[in-house]
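Researcher: I'd like a structural prediction for the single chain below. Treat it as a standalone chain; there are no partners to consider.
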Amino acid sequence: MTPTCRENLSMYEYNLASKNPPHAILIAGGYTGRLFRHFVYMNVVNFRGIRIGLTQQISVLVMLLVFLSYASIGVAQIHDQSTAPWDYRDREYADDLAVVEKHHFNMNVQTLKAGQSTAYVGGDLAFIFRFFPNHHRALDAMGRLWRTHRRTSNRAPPGMDPSRNAEYFFEQAIAFAPSDGTVEMLYGMHLFLSARNDQALPHVNKAVELAPNSPEINYNAGLFFLAMGNHEIAMSHARTAYDAGYPLPGLRKKLVKIGAWKESN
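Model: Treating it as a single chain, here is the predicted structure.
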């Protein structure tokens, strides 16, 4: 994280954005069957710290949206691969998720440093989507991968099929899990950070429609509408988020700074 970006965040926000979120996943009974035979030869590679780049705070909050949407999950059985794809939100597939993440989503992949079980980051992410098309954190990483690469090249990231860009995987996730508001918000923020505001708007609105009481989604919607200059709508989403106990102060601070913050009656 750059010093400038860090100065704009509270220590709570900075610490959350800079660390791998805790996972409460238990693997029952060892790796068996076809899933075991596919994964057992793979190794975990090294950690690298997260680089957070953003139009001020938005990219950080996209990551936080992903982290906070990731609920603790319990023990389930390993399922046959032929039954995939599976819903990222469904606790029945907790063990399957743990296996896939163990071998394809270490910190090198999450921070776009290097592939883990394939030659390139994009290969590991694409593999995850074969089993969990709406994997929130992998979708966020795929968006960051394409945005980062587009700054320096008109070609696809190494190892990626040019016809399967970030938008392809977001659309695939929406088609697979149309009720998943977090996917809609992540897609909207990806488009916004790609300077495609008009395309971002319907996805942000859809996310709020699907999860109107979600503090995380309302917080991110507030940031989006504030950046778009819609202060009243931003304030409305901020109020929903903070009334639900959302802890991050960034949106409130931005609204206070421009004189748009209104205290509850």
